[in-house]
Amino acid sequence: MDCQIGPFESRDWDELWPMLHEVFSRGETYAYPRDMSEPEAKAAWCGVDRYCFVARCDSQICGSYIIKKNQPGQGSHVCNGSYVVGKNARGRGLGRLLCLHSLDTARDLGFKAMQFNLVVSNNSPAIHLWESCGFSTVGRLPKAFKHPRLGFIDAFVMYQWLISD
Amino acid sequence: MDCQIGPFESRDWDELWPMLHEVFSRGETYAYPRDMSEPEAKAAWCGVDRYCFVARCDSQICGSYIIKKNQPGQGSHVCNGSYVVGKNARGRGLGRLLCLHSLDTARDLGFKAMQFNLVVSNNSPAIHLWESCGFSTVGRLPKAFKHPRLGFIDAFVMYQWLISD
Prior knowledge:
Strand order of the largest sheet of chain A: 1-2-3-4-5-7-6
Radius of gyration of chain A: 15 Å
Oligomer: homodimer
Shape of chain A: globular
Helix content of chain A: 25-40%
Largest interface: A-B, 36 and 36 residues
Largest sheet of chain A: 7 strands, mixed
């Protein structure tokens, strides 16, 4: 797969939105509202105070990630990362490519750690992927995610310190 | 201590702000920026999508708490709570009063759980208080809080399911 990852540009949105919509409307991996409108999704994914990147595979958008501060002030050295891989690009290592790219981006931006706040506990492929990219599971939130088919299920907090002290 | 807890009203702000400012500017317990301006603090504490309450002791504002959704969509049944006790009211059980009131408020609003995202690990009085109000420590975030005197220290994630299933 020949993939290039670079910063999101406004003209990317029309191609990016259907990919995000497919993931958000399934509602099985993200806490975004399943019926999120296009403007709401654009604000959440590409709005102020976040850094958005897109992956193009064979010149089509096939994935995206964002990085933002996870907390303000005394918590602002920790960023939060979110990732989406397009339906047609799954199972081909793009998630890992996006994650590793995001870790470099986070370090370039001066962040010292990355945190995932709500990793759905039945999403084993993602959990193994994040672990293989250096993340540890540092917490378990009982029934913190309302899965559309399974009801309330646990979610994990995952974390990685990004720099050598 | 004769304390009444009720919903925040706009006219409370001028009395509330100095109390919040004292806590936020110390920067030892909250991730809010230490130099947070008054309008920023007002938006953060009393803005849209959050429920703000104040405690009056002998008719002076002596404490406050807010409740908001901790995540959107499939995570929106979990709320987040934040508490401030005024300098002159500390050590008199007001923190517990606010926390127990907030748990009732959260249930009334239909929330099913409450989560604290960043409890500074050296804040033992708060940790014991939250535990005594039913919270469990469900995660530890390494060096996730930049303490003004101590540098990077760990923070805890605390959590409580609020209803019987």
